[in-house]
Amino acid sequence: MSVDCQFCGTSVILPESGAIVLSNKTKESTFHLPVHHEDENAIIHNYDSHSQLLDSLHSLLQNNNSNQWVHVINKESRQSFPISIDHLYERLKQPELTSIIHNGDFTSHLQPIVDISNNDIYGYESLLRTKEREVNPGELFSLAHRTGLHSMLDQKARRSAVQAKSKLIPTGQKIFINFLPSTIYVPEYCLKHTFQIVEEFNIDPADLVFEVVETEKITDVNHLKSIFDTYKSSGMKVALDDVGTGYSTLEMLSLLQPDFVKIDRSYIQNCHRISSHQDFLHEVMARADQFNIKVLAEGIETKEEWEWLQSIGVHYGQGYYLGRPQETPKKEIILPS
Prior knowledge:
CATH class of the largest domain: Alpha Beta
Strand content: 15-25%
CATH superfamily of the largest domain: EAL domain
Organism: Halobacillus seohaensis
Strand order of the largest sheet: 8-9-10-11-12-13-14-15
Order of helices and strands: EEEEEHEEHHEEHHEHHEHEHEHHEHE
Oligomer: single chain
Distance between the termini: 52 Å
Structural class: alpha/beta
Domain EAL: 90-337
Protein name: EAL domain-containing protein
CATH topology of the largest domain: TIM Barrel
Shape: elongated
Number of helices: 12
């Protein structure tokens, strides 16, 4: 099994048998792996299998050691790496899902984004899907958070999206790619991996739009702005997702000034007949116009919603009415009658 660096997604091998180093201060009254070495600072324990290590980690967690870190030693290579006890435990407990992330066993499905003024395809959103085994993306991202693999998953998802762009989407059409701000610690350094992928696949940076995923809860607006600025300085576009819910308030538009805002689907549903939805959408349009921000309505499911959004001048639309995510994307839009 591979594991990754907590911060940059770099893979290292978790040996089937090896040793782990614990602090001598760790509560370990029920930890029964054989001792290899002990001194005043640390204890080295041998393990012979992943299942044996899993059982022993379970005993540590029962003694409230979830925030403790250990070093895993590969005796053959004599290399070691640090990892928190709870992350290591979760990876060993769900090896199949962990392996999907490590191996990058997923692909990108593409959902069309349509220019409301002329019904042409403006671009696509890249949505992560697993290849061999069908796994709900929410489950995959939940596991990534529990195991500390979110940096790796985020990087590989971005690579899959850029690769899909190079193969399936012509130059001039955008691809919207989700990203997790929590995996980007120092934008100038952490985003180098993304910029290298763009160069590798020879993609025009102007065709890439990076959007904050809906599950993120932003607490540091300045940090997010620095991420946006780094993307923009490389010629890429940025989008603020789910405006109207959670952290994505109208005030964020003036603070972050993204290139696009995506309106939460809860305001799009029945927008043609619910006055409170209409009031909010008019306000978004007015605020976005002040900063030259393009507005994208997601979750469009009916002709009536589409036509009402068209009537108020919303720029772009996305939803099942226009097309579902597909591995091979739709090349033109024929609207249902």
